[in-house]
Amino acid sequence: MNTAETLPYLSSRLLDRLGISTVDMVDEIERQIVGQRRGEVWCAPKAVVLPGDDRYIMATLGVASTPPVLATKSLVVNPRNAGRGLPTLNSLITLLDAETGLPLALVDGNWVTEKRTAALSAVAARRMARSDASSLAFIGCGVQARGHLEAFAALFPLREIRAFGRGTANRDALCQMAQSRGLQAIPCDTAREAVEGADMVVTTVTLVPKPAPFLDANWLKPGSFTVMTDQALPWLPETMPRFDRIIVDDLEQERTMAKLMVDPAMVAGDLTGLVCGDFAGRESAGETTAFVFRGLAVGIWRWRGWCMGGRMWERREREAVGRA
């Protein structure tokens, strides 16, 4: 049994050494989504606390039957952290044995947040974006943008990115990351300049303080695909009918929320329905599609027992620890 002295902590450095690819992550999340439909995976609606001082505090919970793991993620977003020399977002994941409740591990939540959020977007993109999409626009250039660049570059024939953000440091860092992957990178002075003509758009605008809408869906290219990790808050609501097809991450979770992300009349379904084939993500090359989400617990527990019933993960972990 793990104790406080023996409980493993999976740091970002160790997780990087495991060599889990984007395709592996996307495939695994799709497996878990299908597991929800089969009654093998369960997720609770996310809980959010807004203290009123610009902090955003959130928790998610998910349970899997194979392997039997219960995962919880606790997260704090605080813009004042920048003045402390700390990341704006910090989180931690705890893993318990879902059968006994005994602790299994602690996991760096920041690493998982970056990788898993982008992988969720990629699950939708596989079905909603054109397979020949070669240009990607970013509105918001922080950690989530970097995760999405890595994921989308692995799945699409990208040649170019455009980047727009509130500060030039993150924007330039994102452009440098793209250039290091052989992509053309265009820093943009306006959001419209970034969005117009792009095959895909990713918006990752920070939620605290709450952003005023400034993005116009009418700027979008016909046939484009947009990911909104920011609950569509930066988008002008009156322009959302521009989309031919919108899905959200979880219809059941959305029904419990005090403020809906999108008018339900415009929503075609959720990620589970998309993956399970209840409806098509795209029916023609000219459709303009979007995936809007606030976050799911799916995917936060599979870092232990992530393949071969846990044996491969444990072997990888030991090897990574030995190299660290």
Overview of this protein structure:
The chain has 324 residues and is of the alpha/beta class. It has two domains: 9-112 and 298-319, 2-Layer Sandwich (ornithine cyclodeaminase, domain 1), CATH 3.30.1780; 129-292, 3-Layer(aba) Sandwich (Rossmann fold), CATH 3.40.50. It is 30% helix and 25% strand. The chain has nine helices and 14 strands. It has an eight-stranded parallel sheet with strand order 9-8-7-10-11-14-12-13. The protein has a six-stranded mixed sheet with strand order 1-6-5-4-3-2. 43% of the residues are buried.
Beta strand count: 14
Q: Count up the helices.
A: 9
Q: What percent of the residues sit in helical stretches (DSSP H or I)?
A: 25-40%
H and E order: EHHEEEEEHEHEHEHEEEHEHEH
Q: Roughly how many Å is the radius of gyration?
A: 19 Å
CATH architecture of the largest domain: 3-Layer(aba) Sandwich
Spatial separation of the terminal alpha carbons: 24 Å
> What can be said about the biggest beta sheet?
8 strands, parallel
Strand-pairing-aware structural class: alpha/beta
Beta-strand percent range? 15-25%
Number of domains: 2
Low-pLDDT residue spans: 301-324
- Assign the CATH superfamily of the largest domain: NAD(P)-binding Rossmann-like Domain
Using the coordinates shown, work out and report the CATH topology of the largest domain.
Rossmann fold
